[in-house]
Design goal:
- By secondary structure, the chain is an all-alpha fold.
- It has a single domain, classed as N-utilizing Substance Protein B Homolog, Chain A, CATH 1.10.940.
- It contains seven helices and no strands.
Length: 128
């Protein structure tokens, strides 16, 4: 499984954890079962890393939101921001630009017309 696919699977898993009260393991099993794929180490690292560092990741996001709070964020944007922040600040071999671009691409698929621009704005503030 390539990293782009792993990011998309991580999004689906973490979205389920956040919105359907699944544990990370239950969500991973369900998402991967439907695709009949084996989890890559990168996928496992992203899912467990976001789950493990969730409080710090959310604080970092909250610090860079203007006129928004984590409670007001749509689930899609919140989940994509969490993955990108994990990759940018906890996953050392992912360049910031790659993490941002991948989050924007997934936002175009799963979010609305403004999701990509919003995510870009928040993440860009973190590296400037």
């Amino acid at each position: 499984m390539n990293r782009r696919t792993a990011r998309e699977k991580a999004f689906q898993i973490l979205f389920s954890v956040d919105n359907q009260n699944y544990s990370p393991d239950e969500a991973m099993e369900q998402v991967l079962e439907e695709e009949a794929e084996v989890a890559s180490s990168f996928l496992s690292e992203v899912v467990s890393g976001v789950h493990q560092h969730l409080k710090e990741i959310d604080e970092k996001i909250e610090d860079h939101l203007e006129n928004w709070s984590m409670k007001r964020l749509a689930a899609v944007e919140k989940t994509l921001l969490r993955i990108a922040v994990f990759e940018m600040f906890y996953e050392v071999d992912t360049p910031h630009g790659v993490a941002i671009n991948e989050a924007i691409e997934l936002a175009h698929v799963y979010g609305d017309d403004k999701s990509g621009k919003f995510i870009n704005g928040v993440l860009s503030k973190m590296i400037s």
